[in-house]
Amino acid sequence: MPQNKRDHSLNLAPASVDDYRELARRKLPRQIFDYIDGGAFAESTLAANRDDLRRLQFRQRVLRDVSTRSLATTVLGEEIALPLILAPVGFGGMFARRAEVQAARAAERAGIPFCESTLSICGVEEVAASITRPLWFQLYVMKDRSYAEDLMVRAQAVGCTTLVLTVDLAVVGQRYRDGRNGISGRISRTKRMRRGADLFTHTKWVRDVALGGRPLTFGNLEKALPDANVPGDFQAWVAGQFDPSVSWDDLAWLREHWRGKIALKGILDPDDAREAVDRGADAVIVSNHGGRQLDDVPSTIRSLPRIAEAVSDHCEVLMDGGIRSGLDVVKAMAMGARACLIGRPWAYAVAARGERGVDHILRIFQSEMMVTLGLTGVNDVRDLDRTVVVEQ
Description:
The chain is α/β, with parallel strands linked by helices. The chain is 43% helix and 11% strand. The protein has one domain (24-176, 236-391): Aldolase class I (TIM Barrel), CATH 3.20.20. It contains 15 helices and twelve strands. The chain has an eight-stranded parallel sheet.
């Protein structure tokens, strides 16, 4: 492959999400790359998210006028240019300098929403000030509900339109890569030394992110917690801060404090989807947390059809997990999703090339979707249905 002048040391001209993953692997300290890349336990669900998408094949259709094609759609009343949302990703500012700001600006140029994470390094005010398009905001509920109420007030004050409540983090999944790297679990002296060596052998990352990207704190939690620094043992920190008692009854409390749309992220079962509708959710996001929570649960693309059949007449259905290309987005939409959220693709891209990397990965998705529509004989992404795919 010819060397790209802008990446002399990496000798790779990225043309796909997998290419950006490789660039990120080379540029980031191992512990940070594995945090992005890894999953829970044996990572079976992480792999299934991708493998099950590959098992879906397209019906190639010919001699149809596809000279005019459209990827535009609406999600929760918002017009978007592509059926994509940049998913909430915690610790984003550890991947690149003020990464959430860079990704949000790229999303705005592409005409799609960016969803700010509760655990973003950049606070919601900083990200909102960098763009003109309304943000989405993802919420984790902490044991002191006043923290969540404060976050909702702040998010609405800067114009966030949609609240994404993540519902699959009652406890943190066992992420063995993080344990081996010392991000979670007991941090021995050996692990501490290995972590330090890992960080400081990546001098460009240290200069650009660790030093140039300060403050490396949870920007959304500085007002709520006495110490908003990124914790050494993330799993223990979450166990101490997040509220495992959150239940369906709390959706009424959420509605009291949020005026906009509400989407529940982490739905894998049709009965839970029906309950979400009954409790007033505007959307459900079919998600297994990117394979990072409970292993050996179904992939999202396998869970999607039953959930869409159960509730798509009553609320919008979105999906994330395993999406690595525009072809995957088309498959998910054919199986019942209104649009897809992508997390790892933008995380790899921003780590590898910053804002221009996110710009580029979104152009790749756009091009792949347009080609796929044309070769399946579909003019409008909103017309996709299950007749477009067959299961291998």
